[in-house]
Amino acid sequence: MADDCRRFGARVALRCGSEELSYAQLDAYSERLAAYLRSHCGLIHGDRVAVMMPNLTAYPVAILGILRAGLVVVNVNPFYTPRELQHQLQDSGAKAIVIARPFLPALHEVLADTDVETVMVAPMGSALCPEPGDADGAQVQMNAALACTEELPSTSITPTDNAFLQYTGGTTGPSKGATLSHGNILAKGCLERL
After folding, report:
1. Fewer CB under 10 Å: which end of the chain, C or N?
2. Are residues 70 and 136 in contact, defined by beta-carbon separation less than 8 angstroms?
3. Which of 166, 162, 180, 135 shows the shortest CA–CA distance to 42?
4. How far apart are CA 160 and CA 162, in angstroms?
5. What are phi and psi of 26, to 5 degrees?
6. pTM of the model
7. Is 32 exposed, middle or buried, given 0-12, 13-18 or 19+ CB atoms closer than 10 A?
8. pLDDT along the chain (194 residues), means of 10
9. How far is CA 5 from CA 8, 30, 46, in A?
10. Which CATH number belongs to the domain containing residue 53 in this structure?
């Protein structure tokens, strides 16, 4: 992905409503987010980070940032009830969450019963832009993280490292996590190009 970002730098990588991000912006934002997660949140290789938001420009930035940092993405259905959210956060052992503001009330109901130490609030709509800001305790605005100036610590990611902990729909009981490695994701991409 980083190679594609460099190769197609000025081209539009994604559109969400009226907002567009170029490949260069996607690359820069995801690298800054990765650096922030590693240098400011105390997360280490293999830690799990939940992502709870609908289709927003912030979503692919969050996913790529988490993966670049050597962390594991835990996608969370944004319409989960507090009970379902608590189950997934506890079961996954997520230490941080990137969440859109409208879903904060459900999180606040269960946060104390989870391992989540960092809550990063993603902007809604077309408000994704780096802007320096301070963390409010364990809560930080995603735009403040995108202004991170620290270098991303060197991270060795292998094909066998976990990339995603994807949960089932929970139709026959509590949802269960299934791991996808970086190798799984690369193999799927290669197969799609055939």
Report:
1. C
2. no
3. 135
4. 6
5. -60, -45
6. 0.91
7. buried
8. 77 83 91 94 96 92 96 96 96 97 94 96 73 62 88 89 92 88 88 77
9. 5, 11, 24
10. 3.40.50.980
| Burial class, 76, CB count within 10 angstroms (exposed 0-12 / middle 13-18 / buried 19+) | buried
How far apart (Å, rounded) are the C-alpha atoms in residues 4 and 8?
6
Number of domains in the chain: 1
Residues 6 or more apart in contact with residue 111 via CB below 8 angstroms: 119
Per residue in 63-108, pLDDT tens? 999 999 999 999 999 999 999 999 999 999 999 999 999 999 999 9
Backbone dihedral region of 137: left (phi > 0), alpha (psi from -120 to 50 degrees) or beta? left
Please list, in sequence order, all residues whose beta carbon lies within 8 angstroms of the beta carbon of residue 68, skipping any fewer than 6 positions away. Answer: 2, 30, 31, 34, 152, 155
**Tokens representing 151?**
């270098």
> Token pair for residue 141?
């605005």
Please give the Cα distance from 96 to 118 (Å, whole number).
5
Full DSSP string of 123-177: PPSS---------BTTEEEHHHHTT--SPPPP----TTSEEEEEEP--TTSS--E
> What range does the domain containing 128 cover?
2-193
